[in-house]
Amino acid sequence: MIDQSTNKKDVLIELDGIAKCYPKLRSSTDRVIALWQVLRGKEISRQHQVLSDISFQVLRGESLGIIGENGAGKSTLLKIIAGVINPTRGKAVVNGRLGALLELGAGFHPEHTGRENIRIAAGLMGLSRAEIKAKTPQIIEFADIGSYIDEPIKHYSSGMIVRLGFAVVSAMQPDILITDEVFAVGDESFQKKCTAWLDEYRQRGGTLLFCSHSMFHVQKLCKRACWIHHGKQFMYGDVFDVTQHYLAYHEAKTEQQKQAGGETQSVNTSNEYRVEQVHLLQAGNAVIDPVYQMGEAISVTGQVWSPDDRHPNVAVGILRSDETPVFGTTSEMAGYQLKKIGQNQYGFSISFPDSVLLPGRYMIKSHALDPEGLRVFDTVELYFQVVGKTREFGFCQLKHQWGSS
Amino acid sequence: MFSEFLKREFTSRYLGSIAGVLWVFLQPIVKLLIYSFVFSVIFRIRFTEFGADGFLPFVAVGLWPWLAFSEALQRSVTSVESSASLIKKIKFPHEILVFSSVIVVYLVHLAGMILVFGVLVGMDYTLHLSMLPLLLVYLLLQLMMSIGIGFMLSSFQVFLKDVSQIVSSVMMFMFYLSPILYSITQVPERFRDYYLSNPMAFLIGRYRELMLAGVWNPQMIDGVAVLASIAVFIIGYFMFRRCSRRFEEFI
Q1: ipTM given for this complex
Q2: pLDDT of B5-36, one tens digit each?
Q3: A152 at the B interface (CB within 8 A)?
Q4: Full domain range(s) for residue B208
Q5: In this structure, is the dihedral angle defined by the CA atoms of residues B3, B6, B12 and B17, taken in order, positive or negative?
Q6: Which of A35, A46, A98, A133 to mutate: most B Cβ within 10 Å?
Q7: CATH number of the domain where residue A367 is located
Q8: Residues with Cβ < 8 Å from B111, sequence gap 6 or more?
Q9: Residue A381 covered by a domain
């Protein structure tokens, strides 16, 4: 997996068998024993493991996304790489200047003003006094929080704290930037600013270590991905490979939960319309997270549950994975009547033959509608990917013609 | 970075209160005046050892170094624990927490002591200010010892939350068991050996000889004191280093 011939200079992060354990502390006796063991330089005998056997390299320019469920150990891993905490076993080597944006307001002092905190935080990150002085105006401009810069941080909103934190980190010009899903807090315009900065940062050769639940962002920003599952390195490799397996895993998991919950739902006399058993078909077979060739037919089948046994309607829409709508329609618009297949059950299928979608990740949303086609109830989302050899861009291939005038 | 931490420690400690920095100097002076009232006015205790110059300079020379010592330990013991959020979020040398908490206390009390010495000289008391540099050398030993003990206590506190309680009780006992309000020569012979185990008893004795009598006759014990404070500092430092790798797991 790891290319041995890689030039040492380009290895920014090298993890070798990282493991992290936390002590089990039930009583004060445990604490006394733990202190004695630490003082003698021994391992603590009672502990539970949160990370084990994590080994990978991050090369310059090859941004890495870290994905995994809540509690999988992602944040712990990032903190180990950032040097905030020490691994119990294994070695983490970081070459180059590292900027970390791990937690909201880390290193800020609530009583001090924004301006003072810039000085403190930048000092903590290892900038010299002269550097800080030179960069402060630039940081204040980037944070763009107006006169609040001279107010104590405790009066800030969480969005303003993120702005300030990001502004300080961005001014450091780090070789590696570690972030842990903090952009989600800022408003639209700030997120745009961050994204623009990150793009420029990566173009300059900066490397990102990015932990997120948004596969869209991971795919957009990273070249490789590492999937941490129950503290173990479950998968590491190309970002599309890893994220697609991860999404498929989640599909399967929610599917299981739905099936487990389905039996109780049949007794449930909920009076809402809902979509059930929605599948994407590829060559006639239901496939989870399918990959279509350009131009291949994309079809969806499913059922709608109707509480009053009247003919319900269904809406189907295709969106790009960043939720930009591409196309949507409803059975009501087409005058299509869902087929009754059982008590309260109505089936539907829709097909997009010769799809003109361009390569990329897409989402297909199915909504249950009432017989009048007015009210939208349940929504089910499925993902698919379109691949193909083209350099055209956008969502879909429009008929076009180049002419001489 | 270190100066930022000193500033942070100083402001978080003193700027929140109304009287601010003034209070820092006022409190020990009020203490000195009360001791003076109780012991020389009510109990009518007279010290003959360093001339008949009275109680004020006698206690003042011992009181400020003692306050520096006792407050430094009480501040440093919680210095790591109270910075839990920093330790969990930021990469920085944890030693700085102990250094800054101890050094701020020493700077404040050193300034207070020099101020009081000035006032006492102004009031025509005899103080041998020419010995001040030597006093600072001994105070430096005391500082090294305080930081060393601070290293140990602050790392223990992370594991065992009641260390700070024990420290404040012990400091109260030690105040009366150290020759601050009395002289070691007033202690009956048979108890005097116990005082050898109290480093502050030795240091306060030296401070008084220097400032009140203006004499300095170093003996072997002074050499031992130098080695001991260096040893305490180094041992404390290594204990702290061992524990600090794992602070985040216990804090």
Answers
A1: 0.82
A2: 777 777 777 665 656 677 778 888 999 999 88
A3: no
A4: 2-250
A5: negative
A6: A35
A7: 2.60.40.2550
A8: B25
A9: yes
